[in-house]
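Review form for a predicted model. The reviewer records the input and the model, then writes brief findings.
Reviewer: anonymous (R2)
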Amino acid sequence: MNGLIEKDQELLLFLNGLGNSTFDPFWLLVTGKWFWIPFYVILLYLVYKSVPLKKLLFVLIFIAIGITISDQLASVFKHGIERLRPCHEPLLMEKMRMVICGGKYGFYSAHASSSFFLVSFLSILIGKKYKALPYILIFWAVVVSYSRIYVGVHYPFDVTFGAAVGFLLGGVLANLAKKVVNRKTI
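Model under review:
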């Protein structure tokens, strides 16, 4: 286990070290929640155009449930495992670029989990209608996830694990949502 933790720290230092103070404002925008509101509005519009109006509320409820579960599950893991964020790790603080620092614990990344939840949920639900959407969503989720490493608040494994949880959760809830959307009556 120590070997895995060391590799995770080495990868963090490498990826975080690629940063430059010139690009810090950009990555702070990318990692912030308000920056993505126009993107979310576009996604909401695509869902609106793809789902019968009578069933749209159910799909939106599934999305809200998925993001809530994703976020709250990450919180449970953070306080259950108590792995310090890189920016709180005494052995790394002097070696890494600290752009911002969040709460004390960081395993696993709720940003990555929520982003990859939307990737799988929307790709399964409306990806056939909008062929480029899954690729756009994957690119977006990877950028958001990398931003967490760039700013120094998550290790690569935090992000990878969060992405996996979100992706699986999105798959499960998307398949349930499809059953609701495809039902003749509600």
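Findings: Residues 2-182 form one domain.
Further findings: The helical segments are 2-17, 24-31, 37-50, 53-81, 110-126, 133-150, 156-182.
Recommendation: see findings above.
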